[in-house]
Amino acid sequence: MNNDKYIQRDSYLKKLIIRKDNGEVKIITGPRRCGKSWLLSHIYRDYLTDQGVPSENIIALDFDKDDDKYDFDILDPKAVKNHIYSQIKSDTENYYIFLDEIQELENFERLVNGLNGHDNIDVYVTGSNSRFLSKDIRTIFRGRGDEIRVFPLSFREFYQALHYDVREAWKVYSTFGGMPRLIHYTDDEQKINYLQNLWDKTYIDDVVERNKVRNELAVSRLATSLCSSIGSLTNPARIANTLESVQKMKIDSKTVSSYIDYLENAFLFESAERYDVKGRRYYETNKKYYCIDIGLRNARLNFRQQEPTHIMENVLYNHLRVLGYLVDVGIVESREMKDGKMSYSQREIDFIANKGSRKYYIQSAYSIPSEEKREQELASLLKISDSFKKIVVVGDEIMPYTDDNGIYFTGLFDFLLKDEWL
């Protein structure tokens, strides 16, 4: 079995290399245990040393460790500052500062901005909290912050690292997901325990502590509810009603909305808004939520709800996000004649993926067993009049083709493993 060191995560390494010595603070964000620390402390460190950077010019501190590794108080900003500057011996040599889980250090902004003010110091920080979201970086780092978002292993990374047969790789990945540490485990029980402990001992506890939540049980059950409804339209009011009817928990929609924000800010879930393709506007109500990792989702549900359609949709969403696309749910409204009467219809496109000038309309179709199902999947795409690429991803292994309407069809594995589609 390979270990973490052989998962090179080349796409993230390239992003760091491009940003090296650019005068900005590099902020690596993502959920806890997704590989941010390994990316810096091993993959990027190895790159720097291979480029001739002396090991003593790479200064790394981990603020998430409560041990005796350091001979000073790692959570005392003044002690941290004194330690770092004591390691910088030259004004002409370049130094690389790695600060892991920086949000654990009070008043870290002053320390980081001070370090970044030196021409020969290149600063890299990691964070697992929303204080590092793009909208806040401009304020925290005085407009000199550059975010790199890290996700758990994509299916492509997982497949390339472990060299399974592609069908076996999908079977394992769609069940246990891509949290990097899982590659150490060969036993399913170990994998299950690890994922469930992440929820109980890391994620939920962190959300509750950081946001001073009084009702930990409500946050826990809300996470379960979101995992249960991935890919389904919902809103805080509907979730509150579900928690009351199913879990017998009385909670108002405003509190649910706040708790959802906490879970999103911890990078555990992402929401996709509904976008009217023809009207070019967003709907204010109802969103779809996706879990950041399908294995975490399954573990939260005790591996009970193993619906292949929803799992495939969540994996496709995460794949698009790993590639850097912003993702919405598309809505196409139209009026049609039906049974002699004019009726109003609203059809859904699973994903609208946007990155700069690029846009794709994507349908996730686990299987298309009949012409009726095919027409159902194509109905929304055929209502779009613009020239952006339209793709139907099928769970079956098929030979890619383009139909008479210019719509591309491809199998799931081809879409996830090859670059030609996007």
Molecular structure report:
It holds the Pfam family DUF4143. The model is unreliable at 1-5 (pLDDT under 50). The protein is globular, with a radius of gyration of 23 Å. It has helices at 10-19, 36-50, 77-87, 108-116, 134-140, 155-162, 166-176, 188-211, 216-228, 236-246, 253-265, 294-300, 308-322, 371-378, 412-417, and strands at 25-29, 58-62, 95-100, 121-127, 145-149, 233-234, 269-276, 281-291, 326-338, 341-355, 358-365, 389-394, 401-402, 408-411. Helix content is 40%, strand content 23%. A hairpin with a 2-residue loop joins strand 10 and strand 11 (358-365). Among the domains are: 4-149, Rossmann fold, CATH 3.40.50.300; 155-269 and 293-302, no CATH class. It is an alpha/beta fold and 422 residues long. The strands form 2 sheets. A 9-stranded mixed β-sheet has the order 6-8-7-9-10-11-12-14-13. A 5-stranded parallel β-sheet has the order 2-3-4-1-5, sandwiched between helices.
Summarize the structure.
The chain has 422 residues and is of the alpha/beta class. It contains 15 helices and 14 strands.
Structural descriptors:
nine-stranded mixed β-sheet, DUF4143, disordered N terminus, Rossmann fold, ATP binding, globular, about 425 residues, about 25% strand, alpha/beta, five-stranded parallel β-sheet, 15 helices
SS content category: alpha/beta
Tell me what the CATH architecture of the domain at 4-149 is: 3-Layer(aba) Sandwich
CATH class type of the domain at 4-149:
Alpha Beta
Note the main sheet.
9 strands, mixed
Summarize model confidence as the mean pLDDT: 92
Helix proportion range: 25-40%
Largest sheet strand order: 6-8-7-9-10-11-12-14-13
- Using the alpha-carbon principal axes, give the shape: globular
- What's the helix count? 15
How many strands? 14
Rg, rounded, reads 23 Å
GO molecular function, one term: ATP binding
Keywords: ATP-binding, Nucleotide-binding
Protein name: ATP-binding protein
Domain AAA: 24-158
